[in-house]
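As a representative case, the lines below give one protein's residues and fold tokens.
***
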Amino acid sequence: MRLIYLHGFRSSSRSFKARLLQARFAGLADRFLAPDLPVEPAAAIAQVQREIRPVVSDTLVGSSLGGCYATWLAEQVGCKAVLLNPAVRPARDLAMQIGPQTGYHDGQPFEFRQAYVEQLRGYEVAQITRPERYFLIAAQGDEVLDWREMVSHFRGARQRVIPGSDHGLSDFADWIDEVLAFAGFDPEVMAKSIVG
């Protein structure tokens, strides 16, 4: 049983949500993975499938664009997924980002291409199956994506709709125990492993 964190567009494994989760897995490093994903969607999915190989007992945690990837992979593998302000229609939303970009954490330039937008269409899940596998955390204060679209898309799934907050879920520490419990980890036991 592992927790696999998939970061969003322009982000990385150094995002504060990934670091918060990593801290909770102190002493259980083999149970938490947060890969740095390539910009190209097909390459990102291939990397996860090749290097991490999610299985049914794993839980994917996807933030923003990583939420799209987590949803698609969960449908393929049959595992659980936690979606943090997920991009439901990333091809539409990222079409405006075509061109030169810069990574948030490393400042490195990269090119986001039209071909990547086309690839994203192939990873958009029209309708989830088995909603009980999903846990949506959506912030009403998300300044990038529409929380109502997320709630509608993940109808029937466990949902935590947060009044206020923001796209990056700056209050993620408040919800981390719920994420861990949904994934099958005991938050109290994990808190003790940090202290011990």
User: Anything to note?
Assistant: Strands lie at 3-6, 32-33, 59-63, 80-84, 99-102, 109-112, 134-139, 158-162.
